[in-house]
Amino acid sequence: MIGRILSLSVRMRWLVAFLTLVVIGFGLWQITKLPIDAVPDVTNRQVQISTFAPTLGPVDIEKQVTFPVETALAGIPGLEMTRSISRNGFSQVTAVFTDRTDIYFARQQVTERLAQSRDSLPANAQPILAPLSTGLGEIFFYSVAFRHPDGKGLKTVDGKPGWQSDGSYLTPEGERLTTELAKAAYLRTVQDWIIRPQMRAVRGVAGVDSNGGYVKQYLIEPNLNALASYGLSVTELADAMERANLSAGSNYVRRAGESFLVRADARLKSIEDIQEAVVATRNGVPVRVKDVGQVVIGGAVRTGSGSRMGSEAVISTVLMLVGDNSRIVATDAAEKLTQINKALPPDVFAEPVYNRSKLVNATIATVEKNLTEGALLVIVVLFLLLGNIRAALITAAVIPITMLMTAAGMNGLGVSGNLMSLGALDFGLIVDGAVIIVENALRRLAERQEHEGRLLTREERMEETTLAAKEMVRPTVYGQLIIFLVFVPLLTFQGVEGKTFAPMAITLMVALASAFVLSLTFVPAMIAIVVKGRVSETEVKPIRWFKERYAPVLGRAVARPMPFILGGVGVFVAAVLSFGFLGEEFMPQLDEKDITVTNFRVPSASIDQSTQMQLQIENALKTLPEVALVFSKNGNADLGTDPMPPNASDTYVIPKPENEWPTEVKSKEDILRRIEERMKPLIGNRTEIQQPIQMRFNELIAGVRADVAIKLYGDDLDAMSEQAKRIAAVMRTIPGAGDVSAEQTSGAPTFDVQIDRQAAG
Prior knowledge:
It is found in: Cell membrane. Belongs to the resistance-nodulation-cell division (RND) (TC 2.A.6) family. Keywords: Cell membrane, Membrane, Transmembrane, Transmembrane helix, Transport. By secondary structure, this protein is of the alpha+beta class. The protein is built from 26 helices and 23 strands. Helix 2 packs across helix 19, helix 5 packs across helix 10 and helix 17 packs antiparallel against helix 18. 33% of the residues are buried.
């Protein structure tokens, strides 16, 4: 069959050339569709269910929310395991499915099970599914802040929206913000009602999470003495506010042939409306809210906050849809944010603070550089060794065409382009089959010309090209088959290993298969078209030089083989011994340039205290001349995709380009050392320094952010805590161990109100 394909390729060479152009066009289109990322996504098939119940403590959350949700999910087809987190007012259950499970099917099943279990959950608990993203879906962060806090350095015009001379802020709606809480709540309002809806409309965005600010609320601060004087209770005040905030419709009124919709709109729209709301009537005189208290702008109790360069801000995270192109989505998100900025209120601006596309572009630039240099090196070697420019060009053309065909195959098999997949391409292997066919064709054409004593006719050239290709079929097939078999075991990997290394094997095997097809079709056809005129089969100068020096050594090796055999054995033994001194790493370390500093405080630290300590850290780090930007996410965000307790913070340090670093800073290690020096005087923080993607990788693989983790299982939490401290003490003595610590499981104080039912009765 292969022989017929070779003969057909030579006879119908122009058709093969045309089909090759079609393949090139298709490959160029496919390469624009190829998902690009820095590293492969190792996230398993998982669905996260987050439940917020602010009135419940950790124990009640576990009993009333987490356990019922986990129980409801049991038995879903494809479910492998569930794991959960129960914190004060928050529960997160992660359902992990097999890799063969369709993620949309899994989410549908989880939604149905949650609907069935709704009656077993507390009335105020509303489970929500996390966005359809992955652990590495955090591709774009942006901050929402005032450009000139409190109007400093800005010319103010009283009465116009913006900063006022007294330091207050006048919104375009006419609301005056005088307190820091009100200003922070306004930033959050801008994020939730102006920016977030537009950012979610960007193609490929699964969701937008927010940290910081306050969810705006109107608070009534009752005067208890005034309530008592009117004979009112706080409960009656709350009920009155509920009755005062209504909107009702009453169908239509027909008049003069027209229908008029009747609607009574009594919704509260401003502080003034709330102040004028009637609570009760005493002696025919209405008692209004302003008579029994005051109304102020407040914020809901928050579980997380955000900060930027030492000031509070709203930090938002754009989550990418599963399987989308991170570079394209991040770039589109940045462009959308630029458009949104034009319509924001005065002095409010949204600025990108972390953009994954920058890292992806740098990674792809590195891969492109290496691939280009590798391709050029192969082409140069081909020119030098083949001694025929046209033959070398035919062989070199296999490289770009193979890349385009590989891109189409990667799209078809759902493999993304990253360091692991694209970095595995070896052009020497790719052109191997083409080289031997081209070289054999040159040999046969030259010998036939020498035998005939004239230039060959077209039929003779076709015949010799076909025979030359057929002679090389067996070594080509066997060579490609051996390489294929080498990579087949990688396809059997499962879990994290499979997601990491299988794309590399698949990409290389697709490239080899593409090159093999080209060597049987494109290469013979191009030889028949291009290689004309006189063909000389002479050894090039590098080959002659090598043979002159190799022939004497070969003669001695054949005459006295034992010294050479013993030498080979010695080299092998030395290599085995040297291999034992090599370090071991699951994946090569990727320099992301950006740095994350995770800080932990005592478990009892409130979100406000944690935020204040975080602002001190940012003020210390932003003074480093090599640092361009510092921002932080503290505690838990809205969607709970990255649940952290109030005492934990993630600080992102974005360095400047290397050419702007001070002279004393030579490498990233110097930056890390200087960061640690700035952190040392700030007591009360336990610090872990990593990189953004590295941190998420560790968390996805082991459930913790450290490189190495030891997990204990048992029934007695106190006993396990003591044992964990002993293990940590032993781990600190291991050479090379850096920051070693045991997870804190206690220390969060609570006020337990014990009910005396007899007294209450």
